[in-house]
Amino acid sequence: EVGILAKSYIDQGRLIPDDIMTRLMLNELKGLDRYNWLLDGFPRTVAQAEALDKECQIDTVIDLDVPFETIKCRLTARWIHPASGRVYNLEFSPPKVQGIDDITGEPLVQRDDDKPETVTKRLQAYDAQTKPVLEYYREKGLLKSFSGTETNKIWPHIYAFLQTKLPDVSQKDTTTPR
């Protein structure tokens, strides 16, 4: 029920309100206190960050500083085959025939939240709400920023940083609580 409500905001190009998003996330985090975990895109507001801090101890916050236009280009280049959920990206993994699913030959569609006008609205709202969150975590000494436009250039730096923060799990059974 909460997920359907959240989707209605996304489809309109709006961010999910704090109370709904916080309820979704904190419910998912219950019982994970014995594990290392990584959140992507949450918290997006100071109110969400404060609610998260009341429930969990945050060790590190990573900011991926990617230009607005890079993000917009990537998102608006995404097309899907609705029946199967196959995702194509016109820049990175295009279909063999533009606008057509490789397997079925059926038309591809662009999700409402990937349309240029929706992406622009979402990114503007995200930027306005997220700057205070970055400052919140910067003041706590938890923020580390990485800038760039290409995953393969940013990721090695993030990975090296995370290796200083997390125990080496590459040689351990990852299903065992830590």
UniProtKB/TrEMBL annotation:
It comes from Phaetusa simplex (large-billed tern). InterPro entries: Adenylat/UMP-CMP_kin (IPR000850), Adenylat_kinase_CS (IPR033690), Adenylate_kinase_lid-dom (IPR007862), ADK_active_lid_dom_sf (IPR036193), P-loop_NTPase (IPR027417). It catalyses: GTP + AMP = GDP + ADP. The keyword Ribosomal protein does not apply. Residues 78-113 form the Adenylate kinase active site lid domain. Coiled coil: none annotated. The lineage of its organism: Eukaryota, Metazoa, Chordata, Craniata, Vertebrata. Keywords: Kinase, Nucleotide-binding, Transferase. This is Adenylate kinase 3. Pfam families: ADK, ADK_lid. One of its GO terms (molecular function) is AMP kinase activity. PROSITE patterns: ADENYLATE_KINASE. It comes from the Eukaryota.
